[in-house]
Each structure stands twice: as structure tokens, then as C-alpha cells.
Design brief:
By secondary structure, this protein is an alpha/beta fold. It has eight helices and six strands. Strands 1-3-2-4-5-6 form a six-stranded mixed sheet, covered by helices on one side. The longest helix has 23 residues.
Length: 217
């Protein structure tokens, strides 16, 4: 009993600091929290299922831009939630802590924060406009259709083995080679010329001489 009381007391002391560096968890928030565990189940993003459109914010708790977006994002979520309750079909507003959900960050190639992605019918659309409620709302209520979407990538668990190898091995290798080519074009030419010369010398060494041909005859 004493141990239980001590644990409860410790929890009460530490809880206020648990999310000190990130966004606080508000149980009354209209913004859905997505993780690796529930992302595909809730959004059905890759399949384009029947859960509707999802407008998702990928953020980092330390990011200043992300902190300034907290209130507009919450207001957007509340307004669209109210409209859905009134019978209108609008996107569900959600967020992903990319510093925790690394697999989702990698899957959607999130490079900067915040990254705002609309998922609709198996396609995803990146938002790059102003971050006020009116602009965000216009995009969420259909404005995203004016932009170019791309196919939602499969999760690692659903990805074929060949695609996994391509993403994990070939894609990084191709990226590195392009970077090397960009920075060291001269090295490529020198290396190419070197390999050519070595090949020529090696070929000459293997080629039978005239005397050897006469002996063979």
C-alpha cells in the first residue's frame, strides 16, 4: 500500500513536466493524435478507404514554427469537427510527432517541420500556403484538389520485398552517386580514364605476341 501511494505521488509530481518540451496533451482537443500503431487503421491512407479525408500535421516539439501553428491547427480542427457534426463531409484534422514516430517520418519523407499533408482517396497533397485558419480551411475543404497529388506510399509492413530493397539500398546509393557526381565530376572522368587505360594494358598483356602465334602454327 505504501509503495502504491509513493508511485501515485511520484506520478503527480512528474506528470506536469512529461510534455514540457512538446505539445501538451489536451483530452478535449479536436485534433486526432496519430502514431505508427493507429495511422493506417484510422486513416486508411494507402488504400483510399472509407474513413474520409485526413489533414495531418507532422511536427517536432522543439520547432518554433510548429509551436505557432498549435492554436490555428486546433481552431481548424474544431471548426471542421462542428461542420461534420452538422452533416458536412470535411477532412479530419490530425497530428504526428515526427520525433517519436520515425517510421512515419521516413515513410512520408518528412524533411522539415511542420509538414502538412492531406490524404484523400489514396493520394496525398502537400500544403505550402499561409498558416492562418482561413487558408488552411480553404485547402482542407477542397482546395487541395487544385494541387498535384501523389500516390500514398505503402507502410513498411505492406511493402513488397523488392520495393523494400529498392528504398533501403538502391535509392540511398543512387542519391549518394548523384551527390558525388555533382561535387566531383572531374573525379569521375579521371577514374573512368584510369579504368580504360588499365583495361587496355591488361588486354595487351593477354594478347598473344607474333612469335607465340608462329610457334602455335
Amino acid at each position: 500500500m505504501v509503495k502504491l501511494a509513493a508511485c501515485v505521488l511520484l506520478l503527480c509530481v512528474l506528470l506536469p513536466f512529461a510534455k514540457a518540451e512538446g505539445e501538451e496533451i489536451d483530452i478535449s482537443s479536436a485534433v486526432k493524435i496519430l502514431t505508427e500503431a493507429n495511422f493506417e487503421h484510422d486513416t486508411q491512407a494507402a488504400t483510399g478507404g472509407t474513413t474520409g479525408d485526413w489533414f495531418v500535421k507532422f511536427y517536432a516539439p522543439w520547432c518554433g514554427h510548429c509551436k505557432r501553428l498549435v492554436e490555428p491547427w486546433e481552431q481548424l480542427a474544431k471548426e471542421l469537427k462542428q461542420e461534420r457534426e452538422n452533416g458536412e463531409a470535411h477532412a479530419i484534422i490530425a497530428k504526428v510527432d515526427a520525433t517519436i514516430e520515425k517510421s512515419l517520418q521516413e515513410r512520408f519523407e518528412v524533411k522539415g517541420f511542420p509538414t502538412l499533408l492531406m490524404f484523400s482517396k489514396g493520394q496525398m497533397y502537400k500544403y505550402s500556403g499561409a498558416r492562418d485558419v482561413a487558408s488552411l480551411k480553404a485547402f482542407a475543404k477542397g482546395g487541395f484538389k487544385d494541387s498535384t497529388g501523389e500516390r500514398v506510399p505503402l507502410s513498411a509492413g505492406d511493402m513488397p520485398l523488392a520495393d523494400k530493397l529498392k528504398k533501403k539500398v538502391l535509392a540511398p546509393l543512387e542519391k549518394d552517386m548523384k551527390q558525388i557526381w555533382k561535387l566531383h565530376k572531374l573525379a569521375f572522368f579521371v577514374a573512368g580514364a584510369g579504368f580504360f587505360l588499365v583495361g587496355m594494358i591488361f588486354g595487351c598483356c593477354l594478347k598473344p605476341s607474333g612469335k607465340n602465334k608462329e610457334k602455335q602454327n
